[in-house]
Write a structure and sequence with these properties.
Elements lengths: L1 E3 L5 E6 L4 E6 L5 H18 L3 E5 L11 H16 L3 E6 L2 H9 L14 E6 L2 H24 L1
Parallel strand pairs: 3-4, 4-5, 5-6
Antiparallel strand pairs: 1-2, 2-3
Length: about 150
C-alpha cells in the first residue's frame, strides 16, 4: 500500500496488492478543489497504470452534484485515453447521500454509463465496492484471454 502526497482534502492510496487506486475525500470541497483532486487521482492512476478506482465520498456533506456536468463532459472522457483502456470507478457514499443523489434528476442514472469506456457503480459498503472492482478485474482478464484466442 502506497499513500501518496496529496492535498489535505483528499487522501490518495495506491493498493498495489489489488491494483486499486483509493481516493478518500476528507471533507466537502469547493468546485476547484474537486476538479484538482480528480486530476491528481488521474495523474496517480496514469503513473501506476491503474484502471480500477474506489472513490470514497462519505465524509463530504453532500454529493456535490454541481460538479456533475464537469465530471460528465470533461473528466470521465479523459480516463480511457489517458489510461489506455476501460476504467472502473466504485463510488462509496453515505446511505443518505446516495438516496439524495439517486433522487436528483440532474444526476444521470447508472444506465448513462452503459457503453462508455468507463463504468461507474455506487455503493454504501466498502467491501461490496471492492468486490465489484475485483469482478471488473476478472472481466478484463477474461476479455483479454478471449481476444488472444481470436
Amino acid at each position: 500500500m502506497l499513500t501518496l502526497p496529496s492535498e489535505e482534502y483528499l487522501q490518495i492510496v495506491f493498493r498495489s496488492d489489488l491494483n486499486v487506486l483509493v481516493g478518500r475525500w476528507m471533507r466537502q470541497t469547493t468546485p476547484s478543489e474537486m476538479q484538482q483532486g480528480y486530476h491528481d487521482l488521474l495523474d496517480v492512476a496514469v503513473s501506476q497504470n491503474c484502471r480500477r478506482w474506489l472513490v470514497d465520498v462519505r465524509r463530504r456533506d453532500h454529493a456535490n452534484q454541481d460538479g456533475t456536468p464537469w465530471m460528465q463532459q470533461t473528466f470521465f472522457p479523459q480516463l480511457a485515453p489517458r489510461l489506455g483502456s476501460k476504467v472502473s470507478l466504485a463510488y462509496l457514499f453515505a446511505p443518505s447521500h446516495l438516496n439524495d443523489l439517486e433522487a436528483d434528476a440532474t444526476v444521470p442514472p447508472l444506465t448513462y454509463f452503459d457503453g462508455r469506456p468507463y463504468r461507474v457503480q455506487r455503493f454504501v459498503e466498502e467491501h461490496i465496492a471492492m468486490s465489484w472492482l475485483d469482478n471488473c478485474r476478472l472481466e478484463e482478464q477474461h476479455e483479454l484471454s478471449q481476444s488472444a484466442i481470436m
